Amino acid sequence: MLTKSDRCRHCYRRHRSWQARAQCLLRPTFWVTGNPPLSGPCFASISDCGRWAGRVARTVILYPTREEAEKAKRRLDNDACGGRCSNRHRVIELRP
Ligand SMILES: [Zn+2]
Ligand SMILES: [Zn+2]
Question: Domain range spanning residue 79?
Fold first, then answer.
């Protein structure tokens, strides 16, 4: 659960969404999708396989449950990651 009064330990701002929090915590991100409600937990399915202009293009998808995030990771593990997959997929729980 992320409350609006929680200050981010990274940037000391108050993030008003899990998406903003993920963008801060997992920087540099290429894109972040999904925005679970602030009233619950947030799990991120992360891929570090992508490359953009020679750097890691980290893609992050946010889910309200670990189960969904693990499912998304398994999809990446199987085939959904695309071209130059180096199997760098993981799931983390975001902390406020
Ligand atoms: Zn922050
Ligand atoms: Zn991959």
Answer: 18-93
